UniProtKB/TrEMBL annotation:
Residues the record marks as site: Important for catalytic activity: 141
Protein name per UniProt: 3-hydroxyacyl-CoA dehydrogenase family protein
UniProt similarity note: Belongs to the 3-hydroxyacyl-CoA dehydrogenase family.
Stored InterPro entries: 3-OHacyl-CoA_DH, 3-OHacyl-CoA_DH_NAD-bd, 3HC_DH_C, 6-PGluconate_DH-like_C_sf, 6PGD_dom2, NAD(P)-bd_dom_sf
GO molecular function terms noted in the UniProt entry: NAD+ binding; oxidoreductase activity, acting on the CH-OH group of donors, NAD or NADP as acceptor
This protein's record includes keyword Cytoplasm: no
Lineage: Bacteria, Bacillati, Actinomycetota, Actinomycetes, Kitasatosporales
Amino acid sequence: MTGNGGEQRLAVFGAGVMGIGIATLAIGRGVPVTLVDVDQARLGTARRRIRDELRLAQMMGALPRSGPTGELQFAESVAAAADATWVIEAITEVAELKTKVHREIAAAVAPGTLRVTNTSSIPVDELAGQVPAPEELAGIHFMNPPYLIGTLEVVRGPRTSERTMTAVQELLAVLGRKGIVVGDGPGFVTSRVLHRMINDAANVVEEGRATAEDVDALMEGCLGHPTGPLRTADLIGIDNLVDSLWVLHERTGDEGCRPSELLLRKVAEGNHGRKTGRGFYEYEVR
């Protein structure tokens, strides 16, 4: 499934946290990347951010220190993805925006090009029902940061073809990642379980029963959670988490997914976690 008939190239839409992380993973594995975003300011800082994250990933041994690095290009127009082998959309978790972008992608790329939505909660078939060639669309839920976490959630929608799933496996092999295929539905597996747990943890803090530090220490020390749910919220991005919780709440009716008032307050205050320097904890922003 090669859209350009020659060199394999990945197009990534969205120069936010996830788009930057996915691009870093790909070029670190020697895959040429075109990063597309309509926001000139984001693109203006993207090269430095990717360079910094690539250096960090190599220092940590998460990406090879030697060997070729994939070429990195930047673009503001969807037309730049026309020769892509694979396309990954990694924009904000808003179904209407994702649908609009996927319609534009489908019109720009060659027939048979793998089109992926990187989503944590929106059902793949919800998007597929509104775009051309729905059989060529699949979901991959990259975890943050993509270059450190080697296992991914692959979502096969009801209309996703076997040919498309083969292309997904080919892409993951190139990226050196393991995909676990799950069925479609709001939140799939990871977000359906994790995001409600984080929401409950935030409610416990809001109710004054424990500090964020104590909640995380208990979840780490007693239950073996590697970082604690609230440190995880900071890593995901509290704004992204709230978007996903609203998706889950609206599509399942589960009141446990209604975002905590504490999460909503942090978003309103601009305290989104690691990327802003403050969430449940404080961080140095690179």
